[in-house]
Structure formats: C-alpha cells, structure tokens
Amino acid sequence: MIMALTVRPTAALKAHPMWSQADFEYFRGKGYSNHQVLEFWERDLRLGCKPLNWKPTDAKYQHSLRRITRR
C-alpha cells in the first residue's frame, strides 16, 4: 500500500518551472526539505535542465519510489 506524503509543497514550489509532483515526492522521500528541493530546482533551471516528469504508472517508478521512501 502506497501512503501519501504528509508534507505539502509550498506555493513557490508549485509555481516553479521545474515543478513535478513525482519529482517532489522523490526528493521528499529522500528526506530533503521543501527549501532544499527549491534549491535543487533553481540550480537545475540555471543549468538548462528540463523538468523531470516521472510516470507514476510505470512499474520502474513505483519500485524506485517504494525503495526510496520505504513504502
């Protein structure tokens, strides 16, 4: 059973060009704070990276997220 994260993204995160719910859940599952996630995305944006769009229905994604978040 997959449990929802209890930490909600801030308005700044949701408005960020790098926003991705799945990416946010990945970082939060790794233990990073909202502030740290924002710093990662700011850095990636400066480097010209594209937003990471995980496919939550993909078995590889589900396995990775469960392994990282231990859910």
What does this structure look like?
The protein has 71 residues and is mainly alpha-helical. The chain has helices at residues 11-15, 21-29, 34-46, 59-69. It contains 4 helices and no strands. The radius of gyration is 12 Å and the shape is globular.
Question: What's the topology here?
Answer:
Blueprint: H1 11-15, H2 21-29, H3 34-46, H4 59-69
Estimated share of beta-strand residues: under 5%
Question: Helix proportion of residues, in percent?
Answer: 40-55%
The SSE string, one letter per element, is HHHH
Structural class given helices, strands, pairing? mainly alpha
Average pLDDT number: 83
| Termini Cα gap | 7 Å
What's the number of structural domains? Answer: 1
How is the main sheet built? none
Please sum up the structure shown.
It is built from 4 helices and no strands.
Fill in the keyword field for this structure.
single chain; 71 residues; mainly alpha; 0% strand
